[in-house]
Specification:
It is built from 7 helices and 8 strands. It has 419 residues and is mainly alpha-helical. The radius of gyration is 47 Å and the shape is elongated. One of its GO terms (cellular component) is protein-containing complex.
């Protein structure tokens, strides 16, 4: 309609019914178009899920497989080149080795045809060299005896038709008693003198180049550090010692324990003490022993067996230096070592130099370890001795002998199963 004043077109006005009709039509069209839209969207999603995604996954898997195949082909080509290079090098080495063998064969033939047999003077040179080595070893041993002060005190030679008496042997001014007298001394004294003896024996065998049948190891892995344990090395059946490979304690403790019988190399043994019994325990030993071949378990370990092993080592060392030690004298450790150090054949036989000794122990060494162990365990009667006696060492200083710490009927500690 036109404005009567400005004569401009104005908005048309509709009635309420027309507006309702118009809005109804608009809603129907909107719903129709929404249904079409949802249908197309559903078709597109279905096509994407059922067709496009599997196709894309297949193409991706195919591409990854192709890439892996290419990498494998590249690696295979590298391996082939490396194998070919190694084949060429191996072929070259074989040719070089064959050439050297031919050269050596020709040289041997030429030397055998030109060089005469070695003269007898070379044998004399070897003999003189062996004698010089023996003299050097003897000098080292004499210095070792002086350093450790291995002497006999308290004895006297035969005078006026009276028989002489044997004294006590000391090392480092400490008395090393025979097995029957060990109970008379406190454990600390026995441990100290055994440590000196083990150190002396290890240096002596090192200088002489002799390998002993029983090996000593220490709980801290170093010589003289910790507590000593002893066991057999690998060897033959001669002497019956090789089967005693389990380590045994070569030291005493303050715990009162007394062995009832020699321990077996393969079966556990129960030790008894006075007044209460105790079973040997080796759990702490396995945790504390380090170094060369430490013992895994030692329920049958005993000090008596370890001491017998030490006596056997000394007797075998004496045999290698042409010194005969009978079974009845095997307990005098320092006396036997003194005879070894004074032997006229000292240093002439060794496991390391000419003439080479056979491995421990040869058939010529007749001492059986079982017999020695039985004799040591039997605890022979000890020599009577005074409770208190003064003697002089090599330096002239007077020293009191250690008093008896227990009567002969009071037995303590010949077995130590605890570390």
């Amino acid at each position: 309609m036109d404005c009567k004043i400005c004569e401009l077109k104005q908005r048309q006005f509709y009635c309420e019914n027309c507006l309702k009709t118009h809005l109804h039509d608009l809603r129907q069209q909107t719903q129709h178009y929404a249904l079409d839209r949802d249908e197309h969207v559903a078709k597109a999603n279905k096509a994407l899920v059922e067709t496009m995604i599997p196709a894309r996954v297949s193409r991706a898997n195919l591409t990854a497989a192709q890439r892996q195949v290419e990498e494998l082909q590249i690696g295979l080509a590298k391996l082939r080149k490396e194998n070919e290079r190694k084949r060429d090098r191996l072929r070259s080495l074989r040719e070089t080795l064959a050439s050297r063998r031919r050269t050596m064969s020709a040289a041997k033939l030429q030397i055998s045809s030109v060089v005469p047999a070695p003269p007898a003077r070379e044998a004399e040179d070897i003999t003189s060299l062996s004698a010089a080595i023996a003299r050097a070893r003897s000098g080292l041993v004499q210095e070792l005896v002086e350093v450790f002060n291995v002497v006999e005190v308290g004895g006297r030679p035969p005078i006026g038709g009276k028989a002489g008496t044997k004294g006590e042997w000391t090392i480092g001014d400490l008395i090393l008693p025979v097995p029957g007298d060990i109970r008379r001394y406190p454990p600390d004294h026995i441990n100290a003198v055994l440590t000196h003896t083990i150190h002396f024996l290890s240096l002596l065998t090192f200088y002489l180049g002799v390998r002993l049948p029983f090996e000593v190891v220490w709980t801290e892995g170093k010589l003289g550090v910790g507590q000593p344990w002893i066991g057999a090395i690998r060897g033959g059946e001669t002497g019956g010692w090789a089967r005693w490979y389990t380590k045994h304690p070569l030291h005493l403790s303050s715990a009162p324990i007394t062995p009832s019988s020699p321990s077996s190399p393969t079966t556990p043994r129960r030790t008894h003490s006075s007044p209460t019994p105790r079973i040997a325990d080796s759990t702490t030993l396995a945790a504390s022993v380090v170094g060369a071949d430490p013992p895994a378990s030692a329920p049958e370990s005993s000090f008596t067996t370890a001491l017998s092993m030490l006596l056997y080592n000394v007797s075998y060392l004496a045999h290698t230096q042409s010194v005969d030690v009978p079974l009845s004298q095997a307990g005098d450790v320092l006396s036997n070592l003194w005879m070894v150090c004074c032997s006229a054949e000292l240093g002439r036989k060794s496991h390391e130099t000419h003439p080479t000794l056979p491995p421990p122990t040869p058939a010529s060494f007749s001492l059986d370890f079982a017999q020695l162990l039985q004799a040591t365990t039997a605890n022979p009667a000890s020599r009577p001795r005074a409770k208190r006696l003064t003697h002089h060492t090599s330096s002239g200083v007077a020293r009191d002998r250690i008093e008896e710490s227990a009567r002969e009927d009071e037995d303590w500690d010949l077995v130590d199963d605890d570390v």
